Structures are given as structure tokens and as C-alpha cells.
Amino acid sequence: MKPEHVTPAVEQLLAEGRATTAAVTHASPSWDAFVAPLEDANERVARAWGQVSHLHAVLDSPALREVYNANLPKVSRYWTDLGQNQALFEKYKALRDSPEFAQLSNARRKIVDNALRDFRLGGAELPPDGKARFAAIQEELARLGAKFSENLLDATNAFSVVVDEKRIAGLPEDVLHAAREAAQAEGKAGWKFTLHAPSYLPVMQYADDRRLRETMYRESVTRASEFGRPEWDNTPLIARIVALRRELAQLLGYGSYAEVSLVPKMAESPGQVLRFLDDLARRARPFAERDVEELREFARNELHIQDLQAWDVAYASEKLRAKRYAFSDQEVKQYFPEDAAVAGLFRVAERLYGIRILPSKAPVWHEDVRFFEIRDSAGTASNPVIGQFYTDLYARDTKRGGAWMDDAITRRRRGGQLQTPVAYLNCNFSRPVGGKPALFTHDDVLTLFHEFGHGLHHLLTRIDDLGVSGLNGVEWDAVELPSQFMENFCWEWDVLRNMARHAGSGAPLPRELFDKMVAAKNFHSGLAMLRQIEFAVFDMRLHSDFDPASGQTPLALLQEVRERVAVLHPPGYNRFPNNFSHIFAGGYAAGYYSYKWAEVLSADAYSFFEENGVLDARSGQKFRDEILAVGGSRPAAESFRAFRGREPRVEALLKHNGMISA
After folding, report:
1. Same domain for 51 and 26?
2. Are residues 125 and 41 part of one domain?
3. How many CA atoms lie within 13 Å of 192's alpha carbon, on the beta-carbon side?
């Protein structure tokens, strides 16, 4: 696919979609006459635009960015018009009230109910002028979200620093090798460091040069703010996004955007979410306070840092952890070459879920990308392919930061044909250097397992109807359950001893080193939990009780939240909201709490495996049957109860974080 293909394809698909919409509004209110053809047309639009969006995220270029931004308003308008189509809304209501509805499968009844809900949330019940304003808001929000992401990528790419030998003390050999190659590629002497995670994080964690750490920190936390190029400043975008979301909620008759956001989620109200977060914060705070006090004392006594600052925290933490537990992340990293880590992940999934994962072939967008297929292991080798996925694991300048799973194709049945689901798994790990395999930190391995958990949720669905197949229709605050669940296996000896091997010698992971890793698992877990709660409370309050007209800024609100929640405070120039892509350019607005919400579910689900054997295939089959396979065909709370036999308990999360005894 080339940039010049996008506009004619989008225009043709949108025209076909509109023609189908017009035709089905005159059809009888039945599944086959109007839902099925509408689904077909809309899937073609969504799948094609999904590929454009994917390339915009992983292989950005000026030409692609231009056509993406030119077509984004057209696509946004299409979905908004669809969501406000009164004739379609009436058709769904007629189907809901017809005798046929009772004859539909559970999945199809859920799709109809979800559609009615989404029509209401899409402004279908608004008067004509309200619909027009709603559509304009949706279009502008889509444009602003894309611009937010582009600004952040451009600001990230704009900074680099080349240093000499006097400033590289403490940095690991593989990081220095990559930095040396990066400098040489530009014809420069020395070592080049950037704000991309594989370069930035090791500097913050290992560089003895405090001034270098401070420079990198300042440049990172002021990206896309008033401290950089004006055209990349996300501050006005944030203000506009928040105001537009508030206006959209009021158009729909809600008190806040958070209330709108929670309608299709498990949580019932912003108040309930904030109480949940406050309760977690209260439980975590004593542990976080102890974490900070010991870190400050260690920094003073051992590192001669009298005033612990934000750019010292990762460095001092790594030094303290290395002293206390007698190992470092770099030592562990030698045991996770990419091939061993990926093979180990696949073995866990194969054993738990009764599948085989095999290399396969497909066109790819970059030479680093790999393609795989999944088959059920029971029976013969001729078992059909049940899912396929791409992995794109390394960081590069054309790729947005972070790690994420996205769907390329969703499972559905059309007549006698079953459509095989396909997923993208994207990460930003360090690439191989010096002819050696890429080495993953244990945190990288956790990330890999996490994203693969999302992938399995998409790929192992058995639902044949698009609207609730895979992740479709799953409440947003339950989407992280399968991903966070998979992370737990990265702390099990029976998993790691069969996957970890030394990149140089090939030696297995020593049990002694593993025991140290487990002992250090909850090192500063109080601090980590409060940090996530701080972000979640900020997000929920920004979209519930924050009034842009009051004169308060989002930054001031964040400071207010920090005063109540945080035990470590960043410098005044920190502009965290300006790079908080999750809520301003992703799908997590008034939904960031879902990481903690789903972590309660995942920890409690994993406790079932702890009781029955962590690699127990029967437990894995039950998890596949009751959680992964059912997709969004029933409420997530029902799926959890079907698996666990009861309601979730927060104690499992606290136990996993070392905040209550086992």
C-alpha cells in the first residue's frame, strides 16, 4: 500500500458504505436483511482505514501523514453520520421489538443491544442542529488526537545528544554499542542518545553522569510543551480536547464526559471509580512512603546525592536494588535473548491453551516484522489456522512510542466461510547490535507477555459475529484482564527455567538469580502503584469535575491530584499531560483507571492457577473457554464469575504487590 492509494480507496469504500446504508434503511428489520449487509460494508471501511492508521503509527512518513490527515475527517464523518442515522436507529429498535429478536443467538442479541446504546451515545436522538454540532465535535476531536500524537513523535525525534567518553560511565555495553552505531551513522565521534525508550531508559537508570540524566529528563518531560517549538506544543490541544469532550457530553444530556465514557464499561459512575482509586491509594501509601524514605537515605549515604531529584530516582533505585538483592537488570538481561524470550512465551501459550504457534509468511511493512499462525494442537497436523499475527518489536524513528496490540482482521462467519482473525503486536525494544541477538530486559519480557495476552483475546475467540468477536464489545475496563493475567507467568520458575538462557554461554538461568528477582519483584511497588493511581485520578477528574471555564488548567489539576496522592513530586517544569497519549490520543479518556480495575480481575484470575498449578492445562482451557473465547458476547462480570465461580476480590492484587501477606 502506498500513500497515493489511500484517498481513492477511502472515497470508494465510503461511497459504497453510504450506498449500503441507504439501501438497508428500506429493508425489513431483520438480521439478514439489514444488519448483515451493513456489517459487511462497515467492516471493509474499518479494515482498510485500520491498515492506514497502523502504518501511520509504525512507519510514519511526510507523504503518509499528509494523506492520513486529509482522509481522517472523511472517515470520522462517516462513522458519526452512521451513529446518528435515525432510520437505522429505528430499524434496530424494530428488530429489538420483533419476534425474531428472541430467536437470535446471545451474541446477536448483544450486538443489537450494544447498537441501540451506541446510537444514543452517538447522538441519534439529538435534534438536527445538535447532530450537526456533535458531528463537528467528533471530527475535530479525531484531528486533534492525531495532531497530539504527531507532535509528540516529532518532539521525541527532534532531540539527541552526542557525548564523549568522560560522560558514559555506568552505562551497559550493549547500550553503548547502539549509541556508538547511532553516532557513527551520522558521521560523528562519541555516543548518541535520544528520547526513544531503548536509549532514554538506560541513561536514566545507569548513567553516573548526573548532569546527563538531568538533561535527558528535562528534554523528555517537556516534549510537546511550551518549552519546545510552538507548532509542537500540545497545551492548546489539551485544553480544546477537554472542552470539546465536555460539550459533547452536555449535548447528550450527561453531566460530564466521564459519565459518557462509563456507559459501556463495567464501572458504574465516576464516583465509584474515584472511591476505588482512593481505597487503593490509601492501602499503597504507607508502602510508598517507606519506599521514598529508604531511597532518599540510600542516595544520601551511598551516592552522596543530598537532594534526590526526579532524574535520580531510577538511578538510585537501580543502585539500591542491586545492593539489596545482589543483581542488576543488566545481569538478568543477558538471559533473555529475543529468540529465547519469544519461544518461551509461545510455549506457555501452547501449553495453557492447547494451541501450536508456527512461523508463517505474509507481506510485511518493515524488514523487522515477523508473521506467525496459530492452530489447535488437538487432533492432526491438518488442523485449520485459527489465528495469525505480526510482531514488530523494535523501536525506530518512524514509530510511535509504547507497546500495543491492534486488530488487523476480526473473526466472523460469512455463509460457510470462517474469517481468520489477524493481530498486530507492536513494541519498542532495543534492536540487535553488533551482529548479536536483541537482548530483552525482564520488563521487556513482561511487556511482550502483556501484549500477547491482548493478542490471544483477539485471536482465540470462538464468536462468529463481528460486533462481539475478540475484543469487540468487551467493556474497556475488562480489556486489560487477559494481558495483565499473562504477565504473572514471567515470575514463575517453571516458566523461566525453560525459556531463559545466557546470550553468550547458553547457560540456563541460575535458580539463585531467579530467587533474587522474585525477592525484588515488589521492590518499590508502593511507589509504582501510587504513580498509576495519580494518572488515573487525574484522568477521571479531568473528565468529570474539571471545568475549563473556571480558569484552572489541566496542569494545575494534576498538581492538586499530586498533593493528595503522590509521595514524590517532579520539578515545576514537568509537563506530563503534554505526552499523556493514552487519554489525549488513545482510547483511555476517563478510562485510565481500567489498568488497576482489570489488574484486580487478572490477579484474582491468576490465583486460580496458583491454587491448581500455574501451567495446569485444565485451568488454561477453562480460562480460554470462559474469558478468551467468549469475546464481548456477554458482560465481562459474567465471564469472570463463570471462570472464578465468584465475584473478584481486591485482596489478590494487594497480595501480588506485596501489600498483604500471602
Report:
1. yes
2. yes
3. 17
- Give the side-chain half-sphere CA count within 13 A for 310: 19
Q: Same domain, yes or no, for 143 and 27?
A: yes
Provide the pLDDT confidence category of residue 169 given band limits of 50, 70 and 90.
very high
Q: So what's the pLDDT on residue 535?
A: 98
Beta-sheet strands, E only, within 349-466? 355-359, 370-376, 385-394, 404-409, 412-414, 417-419, 422-429
Query: Is the separation of the CB atoms in 231 and 581 below 8 Å?
Result: no
Catalytically active residues are 451
CB atoms within 10 A of CB 247: 15
**CA-to-CA dists, residue 281 to 539, 571, 602, 659, angstroms:** 15, 22, 19, 12
Q: Are 599 and 484 in contact (CB under 8 A)?
A: yes
Which residues are 394's β-sheet partners? 429
Neighbours of 81 (CB within 10 A): 17
8-state DSSP, 413: E
Domain region containing 199: 159-223
Residues 248 and 181 in one domain: no
In a domain, 281, yes or no: no
126 and 178 co-located in one domain = no
DSSP 8-state symbol, 627: I
Predicted confidence (pLDDT) per residue in 333-344, tens digit: 999 999 999 999
pLDDT above 80 for 381: no
